[in-house]
Amino acid sequence: MLSDKTDTWVPVALSQDLPTGQAMPARTLAGPIALWRSQSGRLAASADRCPHRGMRLSHGFVRGEALSCIYHGWTYSQAGRCLRIPAHPSLTPPETIRVATRSVEEAGGIVWVADGEPDGKPPLFEGYVPLRSLTVRAGGSALSAATGTKAAVEGFVWRAPGAPAIRLLPVPQETGETLIHVLVPADCGVSERVAASRAAESLRRMAERIEAKEAVP
Ligand code: FES
Q: What is the mean pLDDT of each run of 10 residues along the chain (217 residues)?
């Protein structure tokens, strides 16, 4: 599922964090991406750099089925083609003006992106639903030490005292941080979800303390 290859699916966000008509930044191994959901609910992922003057497209705004750059309003389709240049309203933009796009799929409440053409569909984690994502200022070894289990990028189950067993999907970031998606059993009640969320925050603190100690020469 996850590896250092670019043709594998990477869980970049939770569906619940990307409402209709909005854009958000995310990352893959190939760099930053703009993730956006059109008014009809279709997902798109593109390089987070406008071909005009490099503004981040994740700062742009969604209009209908297109994404407009916040700087000069160049507008792009989900396939990456430039549809409109406001300073030249009568011009049909040449096909050569386009933004690179990525494969994107939604499965089990998670948004998956691949830089290449992956075989098959993203995985489904039967019996689990997404709870939240959090960023930890620590890498895989500190996370493994904090959980007492190998922090496999395919995901792993961890249980803190007083909380339900949760499934964690760690996604290493270029910054050395780790984005973690937290999944809980689908039959969890409200109090168990709160306990799971607190357990994830406590894990973040533990991993960051370990990372800080490891960084001391
Ligand atoms: S930088 Fe995006 S339209 Fe100018």
A: 64 97 91 96 97 98 97 97 97 96 95 89 93 95 91 84 93 90 96 96 96 77
Structure tokens at 95: 């096909």
Q: Where are the domains of the chain?
A: 8-115, 128-215
CATH 2.102.10.10 fits 8-115, yes or no: yes
Ligand 1 centre from 57 Cα, in Å? 9
3-state secondary structure of 158: strand
Q: Which of 53, 67, 99 to mutate to test the pocket of ligand 1 (most atoms within 8 A of CB)?
A: 53
Q: What residues flank ligand 1, with Cβ below 6 Å?
A: 50, 52-53, 55, 69, 71-74
Q: Which residues contact 157 (CB under 8 A, 6 or more apart)?
A: 165, 166, 167, 168
